[in-house]
Amino acid sequence: MGTSLKGRTIVMSGGSRGIGLAVLTAAAREGANAVILAKTDAPDPRLPGTVHTAVAAIEAAGGSAVAVVGDVRRETDVERAVTTAVERFGGVDICVNNASAIDLRGTEEVPLKRFDLMQSVNTRGAFLLTRACVPHLKRSDHAHILTLSPPLNLAPRWLGAHPAYTVAKYGMTLLTLGWAAEYGEVGIAANCLWPQTTIATAAVTNLLGGEGLGRRSRAPEIMADAAVAVLSRPPREHTGHTLIDADVLADAGITDLAPYGGGDRPELDLFVDPAR
Length: 276
What we know:
It contains ten helices and seven strands. It has 276 residues and is α/β, with parallel strands linked by helices.
């Protein structure tokens, strides 16, 4: 898949479970280190897994990991996570903006508190973490920013569905495309990655669509494999893209997606239109 991730250090927001943990576990198999900034110091009955169990899973996969209990909305916590990466592993090679808040209600139903939460965690959190990582990314010879956010699909179907959430996720994408332009000359790649289908995480089954949607969703490992493929590429050769996991894998020669589950007709994710 390109340049090895062995010895590279990833700083990720979130990552206690789901897609984020799958990405870090897959990177650990390639020998990567991880620093996880997350609030999950104790388990939630609805969403099992903590930042500490995530560290254990990453280390079991062959990597080294450190948990930083904190909030991506708090600048001091973000700085502490980046400082931990530098002190423990000697620098930062990869920044992954994974943490995200979701509320799919319409404009009249979304409380202002939830609107503010989504903007703070999604857009502001991505900005805070990336800004803190950039001085160290500039010193890396394999610098990547990867944001888990969607392509900018401006179809009315999506613009009108849940504008508060949409602007929070599109904000992440716009920032990342901006960083690709801003830091391209210094060799920092910045790309977005989004699943073609819904992903079978606890959040999807417990909070969004139940077991039925879970059965029509692919496993988090599809995003993990796609992320490793993106992060393994030379940064100067691949930046400024909004990528879909299935397309990334197809470019890597993986076209049989059946092992990732989801059945014959998996549910398309938000912001993804059917192929014509």
